[in-house]
Amino acid sequence: MRLSGESLKGKALLDKIRSDFIGIDTPYTNVDGKSTPRIYLDSTASSLMLRPAARITEDFLAHYSNTHSKLHHSAHISTAAYEWAHDRILTFLGADPEVYTCFFIGAGTTGGINRMARVFRDLQPDKDTAIISIMEHHSNDLPHRKHMQNVIHVPVEGLHENKMCISLPKLEAALQEGQGRVNYVSITAVSNVTGIINPIHEIARLAHKYGALIMIDGAQSAAHLPTQLFQADDPEASIDAFVFSGHKTYSPGSPGVVIARMDHLIKIEPEEVGGGMVERVLEDRYQVKAEFPDREEAGTPNIPGAITLATTIEILDRIGMDLLLEEEDEVLTAALTAMGKIPEITVYGGTDTKVCPRAASISFNVQSLDHGLVAAVLNDTFNIAVRNQCFCAHPYVKEMMSEDLEQVFGTINFGDMSPEFMRKAGMVRASFGLYSTREDVEALINALRDIIKNADKYSDHYEINSNNDYVHKTYRPVHAEIFDVERAVDDYLSV
Ligand SMILES: Cc1ncc(COP(=O)(O)O)c(C=O)c1O
Question: How far does the centroid of ligand 1 lie from the alpha carbon of residue 139, in Å?
Answer without folding.
Answer: 6
